From TrEMBL:
Lineage, highest ranks first: Bacteria, Bacillati, Actinomycetota, Actinomycetes, Kitasatosporales
Species for this entry: Streptomyces chiangmaiensis
InterPro entries with a match to the protein in the record: NTF2-like_dom_sf, SnoaL-like
Protein name, UniProt field: Nuclear transport factor 2 family protein
Span of domain SnoaL-like: 88-190
Domain of life: Bacteria
């Protein structure tokens, strides 16, 4: 088990803030699109379906199933953004296309923000770290142009993690990371995506322990 100092852990969180984003599906359909959904392929990437059918909606862990057409369309955009960021269906360009021109992805824990073409680095980096990455959606709340999701980021640590202390070599460990995502849409595009990732749990799953002693002894 490799131990990193407290400052290194914080710096590493910034380096790996891209880990906040990955794929999505209902708990019973992890690592796959919503059942029955139709994705349109143009110019080499995937576009979100215009709507979700009653069967598709019934498979999702929604806290309120009385959604307007506008809310269903917003939910389709978010689910597609997850899908094209998943390990087996990676499409960074389509992920970028989910956002408005001034859209931003905020890693709220690491304090990092991504805009424009840099948005595509988010899923690309995550798949490099966890090639089979996917998300298990646990609770989805849709309220107009705001979608809140409780989920777990899951995958296998098979790509090297670059940290200020050096390279953490992959060890095949399984990660199951508690996460909360908040999506804010405007005119069918993501204006802001705030992601809260449980980095402490993620690093522990990867075999990296926070070294509290270094923080205590620095004084």
């Amino acid at each position: 088990m490799k131990s990193l100092g407290w400052k290194t852990i914080i710096a590493t969180a910034a380096v790996t803030s891209l880990a906040g984003l990955t794929l999505a599906a209902a708990p019973t359909q992890a690592a796959s699109p919503v059942p029955g959904s139709t994705h349109v392929h143009t110019a080499g990437h995937t576009q979100a379906p215009a709507a979700l059918s009653p069967r598709e909606l019934s498979a999702l862990p929604l806290t309120d199933r009385h959604l307007t057409r506008h809310e269903i369309a917003n939910l389709a955009v978010v689910l597609n953004a997850y899908h094209v960021a998943e390990g087996n269906s990676l499409d960074p360009d389509a992920f970028v296309d989910s956002f408005a021109k001034d859209g931003v992805f905020n890693d709220m824990v690491a304090g990092a923000a991504y805009r424009g073409t840099a948005l595509g680095d988010v899923p690309r980096y995550m798949v490099g770290l966890f090639p089979d990455v996917h998300r298990e959606l646990k609770r989805i709340t849709v309220n107009g142009d705001t979608i809140s999701i409780e989920l777990s980021i899951q995958g296998t640590f098979e790509g090297p993690l670059q940290s200020p202390a050096g390279t953490v070599k992959p060890n095949g460990a399984k990660v199951d990371v508690p996460t909360a995502d908040f999506w804010y849409l405007r005119n069918g595009k993501v204006e802001k995506f705030n992601c809260f990732v449980g980095y402490t749990k993620m690093y522990a799953d990867m075999g990296v322990n926070i070294d509290w002693a270094s923080a205590v002894n620095k004084h």
